[in-house]
Design a protein that fits this description.
This protein is mostly beta strands. The chain has strands at 2-8, 10-12, 18-26, 30-39, 46-51, 57-59, 67-72, 77-82, 91-100, 106-110, 114-118.
């Protein structure tokens, strides 16, 4: 069984920064890709940033310079840092991992999400 667990988040003042961490645990062969999505109230879930299978970083937001994503393959973790936060960054942030369970099976797993609220 694979688990995806996020940590971090909470209330952040405008202009501040957030730091989120995610760890994948359980029984699997390897993590093919992992990263972060977010869903704001009344909106669809969107990509923030993620590592692809080949190690490339895909960004879902146009303001890439506000985003730092890093990973530790050995620890099965991925971290997200966002700077210069705005109220519109308020959302539930989700960690997602594409996990290879066997030679023929890759399955996506989504964490429960962590709330980030940007407000003064």
């Amino acid at each position: 069984q694979v688990q995806v667990v996020e940590s971090g988040g909470g209330l952040v003042q405008p202009g501040g920064s957030l730091e989120l961490s995610c760890r994948v645990s359980g029984s699997f062969i390897k993590i093919e890709g992992m990263g972060w999505y977010r869903q704001a109230p009344g909106k669809e879930r969107e990509l923030v940033a993620r590592f692809t299978t080949g190690g490339r970083i895909d960004y879902g937001l146009s303001e890439k310079d506000r985003i730092t994503i890093s990973r530790d393959i050995a620890k099965s973790t991925v971290d997200l840092r966002m700077n210069s936060l705005k109220p519109e960054d308020t959302a539930v942030y989700y960690c997602h991992a594409d996990v290879r369970l066997s030679q023929t099976t890759v399955q996506g797993f989504l964490g429960q999400g962590t709330q980030v609220t940007v407000s003064s």
